[in-house]
Amino acid sequence: MGEHKNAMLRGDLYRDNDPELVAERLRCQQLLDKFNATTAGEDAQRRGILEDLLGEIGEGSWIMPRFQCDYGHLIRLGHNSFLNYDAIILDCAPVTIGNDVSIGPRAQLLTALHPMQDHELRRQRWETAAPITIGDNVWLGGGVIVCPGVTIGPNTVVGAGSVVTRDLPEKVFAAGNPARVIRPL
To answer: Which is catalytic among the residues 4, 79, 114, 119?
Structure first.
C-alpha cells in the first residue's frame, strides 16, 4: 500500500491523484458502470457486482441504481439494509452502515474534507477524510447529507433534506440544516 493511500486511511493529508488511488477509483467506476446499466429484474447480477465492489454487503441488503461511490471497498453495509435511487457515497474513509437501515433517494454520505484555512494546500488538491458510521435501524429521508466524521446512533430518524454536520444520538428524530434533535423516539 502506497504512501497516499495509507495517509488517506489514517485521516492524514493525501493527494487523490496518486496512481494507486486513481487505479482503485477506475476499477470502482467500471463496476458501477456495470451496476448502473442493469435493468429491472437483474437482481442477481446487481448483487454479484455489489459483492465485488463493496467491502461487505449483508444478506438481504440491496442498492438501487443509480449508485455512485469513490472506492467501494471502504463501504460496509449490514444485513437487510437499503439504499434508494441516486445514492452517493464518497468513501475516502470507511463508511459503515448498520443492519436494517433505510436510506432515501439522493442521499449523500461524504467522508472527504479539504483544507479550509490553508488555501495553498487546497489549491494543490490535498485532502483528508473522516469516517461515517450509521447505526442499526436508522432511517435517512430523501436528500439527506451526512458530513465527514459523523456517527448516527441506532434507531434514529433523520428528516428529508437534512444536513447532518455532527453526531446524532440513538432513538431521536433529527431534521434541519444543520440537523438538530427535534424529539426523542
So the answer is: 114
